[in-house]
Amino acid sequence: MTDGAPLESTRLDSTHLDSARLDAQFAFLNEADKLKQVLRATTLTDGSRRENSGEHSWHLALYAMVLADQAGPGVNIDRVIRMLLLHDLVEIDVGDVPIHSANGQAHGSAEIQAAEARAAERLFGLLPDDIGPAFRALWEEFEAAESPDAVFAKSLDRVQPLMHNIESGGGSWTEYNVTAEQLHQRVGTKVARGAPALWDWIWARAERFFRHA
Amino acid sequence: MTDGAPLESTRLDSTHLDSARLDAQFAFLNEADKLKQVLRATTLTDGSRRENSGEHSWHLALYAMVLADQAGPGVNIDRVIRMLLLHDLVEIDVGDVPIHSANGQAHGSAEIQAAEARAAERLFGLLPDDIGPAFRALWEEFEAAESPDAVFAKSLDRVQPLMHNIESGGGSWTEYNVTAEQLHQRVGTKVARGAPALWDWIWARAERFFRHA
After folding, report:
1. pTM of the predicted model, to two decimals?
2. HD domain spans which residues (chains A, B) (predicted)?
3. Contact B62, A33 (CB under 8 A)
4. Per 3-state DSSP, what percentage of chain A is helix, strand, and coil (rounded to 5)?
5. Given CB atoms, is A189 within the 8 Å cutoff of chain B?
6. Residue B71, Cβ neighbours under 10 Å: how many?
């Protein structure tokens, strides 16, 4: 371990090829910065402001670390973490589509899916060929929600906004007039599929917001 | 894979013990939410606002995924990612201490280190015993900056603000009147130690901001 390179001359060590590779890697990382400006329907737990999709992605990765014991057999938590770090990047081009917006019809529509595929093409296409396609495959695996890793990652992505709505006193449920049935259909089934005990625990805390719905 | 549990009765499946465990896990996850309200000296790449430490942690984990090829031998990128997801949590109690503030004397002072240790005690202490101590150990490993994983994680933590200052036209260097020598000493040596080629590449892009310093 060296104590640092001299100020000058070190640039000469880098080949042109290395430099172009880092150019591509940082083009992607700088573009990714824009995810911090995409706002979600859900607020922070204290209700003070809307959450952005960058900080949301961090929080979800932390959820995966903390709630690893809720994952089913065969789930690789490190892959889940990587998946969650990438899962919302397409929103840089498409924006966040709240799950309860347009009476639950917008999220996952063919139109949105096509726009997200174009965004993935553009964003992951910024990266070198040995990185971009692997990232895109991980994002597609998340979207398909079939592999054990993706099913668990989706559960966490659904459970975090529930927690924030509980903490902030109803949050986006009130805003979108969500009923218990809609919540169960759009969210509960997805959480329970990947983490059944988590759904039991969270519904026990959410149900009071739906008693008069 | 089930299609979701029935709305009622599922709560009875959870034992009291499971429930208390999830209470602790979510006490930590809800407390962690506060990291999104800790502001850093550095702005987003477009200079529009200060970055918060939650979204910064996400961005750094993405840096680790994208720049994995810059890591030295023996570095485990998945451990680096986990380390970076946790590395700033103590700021919930202590706040962000900008590296160039108080003429570079505040960051890493004994006083700040003691406050951060108390914060770690409180925050990781919210978690069950099979999670909290392991998280705390990972954070301490990062702080010690001795293991290959921690040295690489520290390089990324130093390089990201450089990139943001370059993109935003000088950023916190201007604000704190940082000289090339100070940058090299406080930042360059740390980046070069874990990722020498990365330092070469970034200094080639940063040096124009220091020509008249």
Report:
1. 0.91
2. 32-199
3. no
4. 70, 5, 30
5. yes
6. 22
DSSP B72: -
Chain A residues within an 8 Å CB radius of B62: 29, 32, 85-86
Query: Tens of pLDDT along A23-82?
Result: 999 999 999 999 999 999 999 999 999 999 999 999 999 999 999 999 999 999 999 999
Q: Does B61 touch chain A (CB under 8 A)?
A: yes
Judge whether A179 is closer than 8 Å to chain B, CB to CB: no
Q: What's the CA angle centered on A162, arms A157 and A168, to 5 degrees? A: 130
Encoded tokens for B32: 């962690």
Task: List, as ranges, residues 88-117 from A with C-beta within 8 Å of B.
Answer: none
The domains of chain B are located at 19-210
A78 lies within 8 A of chain B by CB? yes
Strands B39-43, A50-52: pairing kind: unpaired
Q: Residues B149, B80: contact at Cβ < 8 Å? A: yes
Find all residues with CB under 8 Å of A26, minimum gap 6, and list them: B163
Phi, psi at A122, each rounded to 5°: -70, -50
Q: Which CATH superfamily is domain A19-210 in?
A: Hypothetical protein af1432 (1.10.3210.10)
- Encoded amino acid at A68, one letter: A
